[in-house]
Specification:
By secondary structure, the chain is mainly alpha-helical. The protein has one domain: Winged helix-like DNA-binding domain superfamily/Winged helix DNA-binding domain (Arc Repressor Mutant, subunit A, Orthogonal Bundle), CATH 1.10.10. Helix content is 44%, strand content 6%. The protein has a two-stranded antiparallel ribbon.
Length: 72
């Protein structure tokens, strides 16, 4: 399990979207990025579909996930 608390591009608020990890300042769950990428979307498409998500936050999520997987 990835510890998202160390990722600057996300936040978690109890009671907001069931307490899921969200992109900062949005109601877009982090898992939406991975689901869309898995489905064949590009980062640019994801950002177009979810205009509240900043490119830097999406990149921070991907970098954090990569670093977390390298530790395993």
């Amino acid at each position: 399990m990835i510890d998202w608390s160390q990722c600057q591009g996300v936040e978690r608020t109890p009671g907001k979207v069931s307490g899921a990890w969200l992109f900062k300042g949005t109601r877009v769950p982090v898992k939406a990025l991975f689901e869309n990428l898995e489905g064949g979307a590009t980062i640019d498409e994801f950002l177009e579909w979810f205009p509240g998500v900043e490119r830097g936050d999406a990149e921070a999520v991907l970098e954090h996930a990569q670093r977390s997987l390298e530790k395993v």
